[in-house]
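Model the whole thing, not chain by chain.
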Amino acid sequence: MTPALSITGLEKTYGNGFQALKGIDLEVAQGEFFALLGPNGAGKSTTIGIISSLVAKTAGKVSVHGIDIDEDFPGAKKFLGIVPQEFNFNVFEKVEDILVQQAGFYGIPLKTARERTDHFLDRLGLAEKRNVTARMLSGGMKRRLMIARALIHQPKLLILDEPTAGVDIEMRRSMYDFLREINAAGTTIILTTHYLEEAEALCRNMAIINHGKIVTNTSIRELLRDLTKESFVLDCLAPLPELISVTDFNVIKRDEHTIEVQIEKGQDLAQAFDGLREQGVKVLSMRNESNRLEQVFVNVLEQNA
Ligand code: ADP
């Protein structure tokens, strides 16, 4: 099957001589929910800018559903919905008008445009704001308006640059539900994010970009499997015994009711629990010391420093 997005040898040197992309190869299959991760300044927005033809590339090829953006950008654009980080609608226009007009740019008949506008306003919780000028919307609402606008021509590939920046937790959840729903209905989604929990919650595959290069491109499951060391924090019944040690495990007593257990890859966590029980420790709850994906992310960046 033709990939939803195919990028080969993508390079970008800005006017000031700075090389933001140093040869990026990336393929995203149709139907994917894909995360493009990377620290600030890695080159994510530059990549998205090139795909949407807002940034001129220095070298390389980009195809959307098999259509080369240099050969037929209008053709590729029909398949593509982009939600950039910056709000770029006219803030003095009414919410509804922004969507209907956008549909017009794609030659969608007015009746269909109105129907789709109603649908997306409703689905994205903006129905009550349809007659409000966009500048009156909260940050989260503006973000949702951007998503609605990107979807109005029913693209097969939706690319979101930091979609939940400035969106509160509750709204983030309903946005996740919405994105999952359209992905399940067949829209390929690529998102860049700083929130690794977000990538973990939504995406199956991911690429990490660092200093303009892809340093990892794999499934999240595969990546987490590479985690060589993990720390767990156990909340225990106080007071804990004066000295705690478990053979083969690094166990640290943090305070009177908290223990940290470090596990190497392949070790059996149940064995650590057995050891603790033998010393009369009662474990009430347990959590990972840090987000696992975050740990992998840090490891990958360190390896490529
Ligand atoms: P990310 O989205 O991963 O945070 P960007 O793609 O925005 O990264 O930026 C990649 C690098 O390119 C950064 O070092 C940034 O400062 C630089 N950069 C971005 N836009 C320009 C520009 N217009 N001129 C010069 N350098 C730029």
